[in-house]
Design goal:
With 371 residues, the protein is an alpha/beta fold. Helices cover 40% and strands 23% of the residues. The radius of gyration is 22 Å and the shape is globular. It binds L-homoserine.
């Protein structure tokens, strides 16, 4: 059995990965080794009756004994360790959830329901680095790849509604702490059935207070939103917005004739589901029924939600989709702008298809390839 080293298995993405690997019984096919940057020698996870001792995630000689390394440890670890391992001649598969290597020439961004052919070609060509994509990009492609596959997309704008989880585990906790402070401060007014305007004044005073808890986000998110994600690029975009065009085109293998994709990425008070509103410019007038058909026939996780109030509020929300692999697409309609303009809305779990699932599946693909 192939030796697979897993690093960062206790963090948020790593924990979701472990959960999925247990659910799918993935451990039966591998000899797992669990690495830690801080707890080497201590007890690690128990898998099928065996408790694994944690190995030192900075010990290159141990890492080099593996056939595959799967890291959810974050970008800094990748920057520190990956070049050293490669310099020392380790030629195993490096599968990574962090963004560090994504745009490298010799790395493939993995989303196998969308780019399995590119992944297979990479394996045949001896490419060794496979990296999960940005969450909004992966979730957009899981929803809309059917339209790209048909060659119907001229350009897309995506306005995002991104969950706290995308910013990290501490941010999820901070969001709920913020909600608690808002609720606690308004409690007496609510108990006294005060008017909405009085409650509103209380809420805004809470979130504007210099003492309000904003250590992680740098601004209130509860009862508000933050229209900025990641750092600034030179052209006025944020890096999250830049990833839309660069990663999507790389995943789809469009080196030339890139499809323009742009939009505004916004953090909202959802816990772990990213949502996106798309405007899609089609390159010809295509009947809505054909569009629907192309979307749903692309993969087994995407499905349509009827463009009605009842279906939408019940089925096209983070509340419904959280902790599932579902990719609902709804609010689908031709726009007043013209027959070639399509509006759509999609929701997806940022920790599953947005992070852990593509790398979990890549591990299986790499194992199949190794035979
Ligand atoms: N950058 C994303 C976000 C998550 O902040 O929501 C990771 O792809």
């Amino acid at each position: 059995m192939k030796k697979v080293g897993i690093i960062g298995w206790r963090g948020m993405v790593g924990s979701v990965l472990m959960e999925r690997m247990r659910e799918e019984n993935d451990f039966k096919d591998i000899e797992p080794l669990f690495f830690s940057t801080s707890q080497a020698g201590q007890e690690g996870p128990e898998i099928n009756g065996t408790t694994y001792e944690l190995l030192d995630a900075r010990d290159l000689s141990l890492l080099k004994e593996t056939d595959i390394l799967l890291s959810c440890q974050g970008g800094q670890y990748t920057s520190d360790i990956h070049p050293k391992l490669r310099n020392e001649g380790w030629d195993g598969y490096w599968i990574d959830a962090a963004s560090t290597l994504r745009m490298e020439k010799d790395a493939i961004i993995v989303l196998d329901p969308v780019n399995r052919k590119i992944i297979d070609q990479g394996l045949t060509d001896g490419i060794k680095d496979y990296v999960g994509g940005n969450c909004t990009v992966s979730l957009m492609l899981m929803a809309l790849a059917g339209l790209f596959e048909k060659g119907w997309v001229e350009w897309i704008t995506s306005q995002t509604y991104q969950a706290a989880s995308g910013a990290g585990a501490k941010n999820m906790i901070e969001l709920v702490e913020q909600m608690r402070l808002v609720g606690e401060n308004a409690q007496n007014l609510l108990d006294d059935n005060e008017t909405a305007l009085r409650v509103d004044r209380n809420v805004i005073e809470t979130v504007r207070s210099p003492r309000f808890l904003t250590k992680q986000f740098g601004a209130p998110l509860a009862a508000s939103l933050i229209p900025w994600i990641d750092r600034a690029m030179d052209n006025g975009q944020t890096r999250e917005e830049w990833k839309g065009i660069s990663e999507t085109n790389k995943i789809l293998g469009y080196a030339e004739n890139q499809i323009p994709i742009d939009g505004c990425c916004v953090r909202v008070g959802s816990m772990r589901c990213h949502s996106q509103a798309f405007t899609i410019k089609l390159n010809k007038d295509i009947p809505l029924a054909d569009i629907e058909n192309a979307i749903v026939s692309h993969n087994q996780w995407v499905y349509l939600v009827a463009n009605t109030k009842e279906e939408t509020v019940n089925k096209l929300t983070p509340t419904r989709v959280s902790r599932t692999l579902d990719i609902p697409v709804g609010r689908l309609r031709k726009m007043n702008l013209g027959e070639q303009y399509l509006s759509a809305f999609s929701v997806g779990d940022q920790l599953l298809w947005g992070a852990a699932e593509p790398v979990r599946r890549m591990l299986k693909i790499a194992l199949e390839h190794l035979g």
